[in-house]
Amino acid sequence: MIEQDHQLADGLQDPEERKSSKLILQAIEEAQDAFRPYLDRCKIIDDIYSRLATTTVPVGFQDQDFDLFWASMEILKPAIYSRTPVPVASPMFDDRDATVSTAADLLERCLSSSFKRGDINQVMLGIRDDLAMANRGVMWV
After folding, report:
1. Domain tally for the chain?
2. pLDDT digit string, tens, across residues 56-102
3. Both 28 and 81 in a single domain?
4. Percentage helix, strand, coil, to 5, in the chain?
5. Mean pLDDT throughout 21-40?
6. Contacts for 84-93 with beta carbons within 8 Å, 24 or more apart?
7. Alpha-carbon distance 51 to 42, whole Å?
8. Do both 124 and 82 map to the same domain?
9. Would the pTM count as exceeding 0.85?
10. Which of 35, 77, 103, 121 is at a distance of 20 to 30 A from 6, taking alpha carbons?
11. How many other CB atoms are found less than 10 A from the CB of residue 96?
């Protein structure tokens, strides 16, 4: 267990060994141990859902729990996220400053092009599904 005084520090630095990453690695290991049951459960849910939702189900197969879960997810997904966000950048004050207006226009165009090039919609759909099924959702781009 990490000592209490080190746990409150931002960098988790050991005063005796400033260049050592021992405390940080220990904190990461403790976090992985604490979240292991949750992550294992999430992996099982992901595996079952992706396997059953993407394959053809044999005739006569009935699993009412899965059917209810699948239907709930399909209803919940569009409520969380349904379409690509449209960036809007505008000056805070309408003082007709050409530099500020041009900067806002440039920022809006940069955001629009980066959304298109980065395929933000596919990333957001993945986050939405992860959030709906496993109560997590972190963007890794």
Report:
1. 2
2. 666 666 778 878 888 888 899 999 999 988 999 999 888 889 999 99
3. no
4. 65, 0, 35
5. 90
6. 84/115, 84/120, 84/121, 84/124, 85/115, 85/120, 85/124, 86/112, 87/111, 87/112, 87/115
7. 14
8. yes
9. no
10. 35
11. 8
